[in-house]
Amino acid sequence: MAPDHDPELDLLLVRDLNAPRDIIWDCWTKPEHLVHWFVPKPHKVVDCELDVRVGGACNTTFDVDGARIENKGVYLEVVPQERLVFTDTYTTGWKPAPDPYMTAILSFDDLGDGRTRYTALVRHRTAEAAKSHSDMGFHEGWGAAATQLEAYAQGLSPVADDAAARTMRIERVIAAPVAVVWGAWLNPDTLPMWWGPDGFTCHTQRIALGAGGEWVFDMIGPDGTVYPNQHRYTRVQPLRRIEYVLHWGENGPKHADAWVTFDAMGDETRVTLGMVFVTAEECDKAKGFGAEALGLQTLGKLARFVGAD
């Protein structure tokens, strides 16, 4: 989810990269990786100094058509694998800019299936500086660099990673604000009231929502069949993302890693629900018996619960 931004001062690029977040982070924070992708080809990075800590140096030198462009900055915020903020000032090559010329605010969101949502927001001192940077080709240049980043990161990823073959993802836009949809989900009183496909009900044994918590329950089908479940919550980002592990019953075999994201779209919310199964075979089996359609029924019940359908 992109941070709030001022369109007069900020330039924004959002890309979903087909590479894991930890590797994308390494590509941004380790000089031996950054030099391979950071500037659009045929230009290149000829020098790089990264001291990735608050107050540390973030210096790069580019060769652009034979001219050396030096960029000097400092890190203002470092949250490993999640957020990176640094300043940047062109000091030679082009006309010197005010100090700092711009501040880059980068975020890295794990999409849970071996992909990363990469957000680059570049904040300028003045609207004139933002327009100048845009006219110079910000979106083309940063977009080309993002494509190079993705290709380079894929080369560092384990060849045997089959996460894509084990992943199922569904989404629905619900005509209600994020706070309302989130409130219906991360609430121990309301979650059991709507969870599950049409005709299914939930009988809760224990429920404690939040990182480190769990939900132990039986999902009961229309024919009375009982399906024991345990959800173990590993990460909760308020109004944004929930991650949990699915087990076949309490302390049973692991079924899948799951996540749900909530993206604001004005007064509506795009809810994306994903699962990475233990094996590709289990994923294929689930899709074969209609798990995607059943999941959409669950999101439909959520929409009706919040009065959006």
Class of secondary structure makeup: alpha+beta
Number of helices: 8
Q: What's the mean pLDDT score? A: 87
Q: From the 3D coordinates, which CATH architecture of the largest domain would you assign?
A: 2-Layer Sandwich
- Order of helix and strand elements from N to C terminus: EHHEEEEEEEHHEHHEEEEEEHH
**Main sheet summary:** 8 strands, antiparallel
Number of domains: 2
Distance between the termini: 25 Å
Poorly predicted parts: 91-98
- Oligomeric state: single chain
Task: Determine the CATH topology of the largest domain.
Answer: Alpha-D-Glucose-1,6-Bisphosphate, Chain A, domain 4
- Corresponding CATH superfamily of the largest domain: START domain
Q: Choose one word for the global shape.
A: elongated
Beta-strand segment tally: 15
Q: Share of helix among residues?
A: 10-25%
What does this structure look like?
With 309 residues, this protein is of the alpha+beta class. It has two domains: 10-156, START domain (Alpha-D-Glucose-1,6-Bisphosphate, Chain A, domain 4), CATH 3.30.530.20; 163-305, Alpha-D-Glucose-1,6-Bisphosphate, Chain A, domain 4, CATH 3.30.530. Helices cover 25% and strands 40% of the residues. The protein contains eight helices and 15 strands. It has helices spanning 21-29, 31-34, 127-135, 138-156, 178-185, 191-194, 280-288, 291-305, and strands at residues 10-17, 44-50, 58-64, 67-72, 75-79, 83-90, 102-110, 116-124, 167-174, 201-208, 214-220, 226-237, 241-247, 254-265, 268-277. Strands 1, 2, 3, 4, 5, 6, 7 and 8 form an eight-stranded antiparallel β-sheet that branches. Strands 9-15-14-13-12-11-10 form a seven-stranded antiparallel β-sheet. Strand 5 and strand 6 (83-90) form a beta hairpin. The radius of gyration is 23 Å and the shape is elongated.
